[in-house]
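Summary of Year 1 activities. Much of the first year was spent building the evaluation harness for sequence design. The harness presents a backbone, in tokenized form, and records the residue chosen at every position. We chose the following record to illustrate the format because it has been used consistently in internal testing since the harness was completed.
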């Protein structure tokens, strides 16, 4: 529980004092996205300007199972790389400008995993490029699955941003100044349907990446599966906290997916 909980879901957890030595501020979330913007931005530039991967990059990809260099990077891979960079940049700006973090904490292991996750994610996308058969080279025109994936990404990103704005509004006044760091039950928008719509939006964003690959990349779908379980767990913990803490909280509201979960 100490490893998987963070922020408000961790504050009610009874822990031995020695475990607190591994706590780091939850507001350090922005470190994840900063690393992603820099790392995945560099990978995007390298991939766009080179027809084959540099030797060091090929060696890193080989760790994930890729055994050959791509002669022509697929348009799908470049799109996914770009969208990951856009997603990371948006989340970084939201953490620094929009979100109002409390004094909540997360485990050091979670922090290190989060930093490493976005590094491995970029390499995973490059590996998917070599594992996806029948994809088109960069010079090809957009296909229908590219368009659907991009539209889903834009809509999901907008929904997630709206959720972040609503969450920040729980702690700010009409002037925009922070009035409290206390946790409040969210409401409005998609929060009327589920307790954590921003987690659902995250899942849809990663689903859009798989769609951009035409649904052909097993690796990408495995990443989506990981995001599903990760976000569903976090959503369920938040949902249980809301129900326990707030007597007026709607009991028919779902945690993660409307009407289902």
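For this record, the design step produced the sequence shown next.
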């Amino acid at each position: 529980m100490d490893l998987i909980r963070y922020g408000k879901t961790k504050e009610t957890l009874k822990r031995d004092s020695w475990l607190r030595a591994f706590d780091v501020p939850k507001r350090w979330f922005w470190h994840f996205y900063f690393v992603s913007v820099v790392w995945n931005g560099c990978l995007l530039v390298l991939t766009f300007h080179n027809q084959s991967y540099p030797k060091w990059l090929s060696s890193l990809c080989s760790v994930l199972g890729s055994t050959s260099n791509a002669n022509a990077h697929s348009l799908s891979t470049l799109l996914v790389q770009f969208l990951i960079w856009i997603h990371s940049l948006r989340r970084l700006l939201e953490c620094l400008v929009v979100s109002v973090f409390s004094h909540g904490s997360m485990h050091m292991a979670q922090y290190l995993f989060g930093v490493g996750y976005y590094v491995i994610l970029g390499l995973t996308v490059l590996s998917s490029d070599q594992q996806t058969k029948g994809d088109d080279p960069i010079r090809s025109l957009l296909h229908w699955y590219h368009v659907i994936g991009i539209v889903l990404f834009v809509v999901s990103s907008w929904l997630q941003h709206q959720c972040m704005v609503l969450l920040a509004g729980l702690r700010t006044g009409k002037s925009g100044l922070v009035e409290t760091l206390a946790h409040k039950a969210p409401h409005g928008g998609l929060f009327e349907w589920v307790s954590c719509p921003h987690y659902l939006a995250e899942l849809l964003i990663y689903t859009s990446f798989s769609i951009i690959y035409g649904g052909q990349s097993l690796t990408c779908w495995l990443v989506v599966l990981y995001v599903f379980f990760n976000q569903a767990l976090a959503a369920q913990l938040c949902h249980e906290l809301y129900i326990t803490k707030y007597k007026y909280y709607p009991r028919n509201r779902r945690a993660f997916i409307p009407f289902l979960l």
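The radius of gyration is 20 Å. Quantitative recovery figures across the full test set are reported in Table 2.
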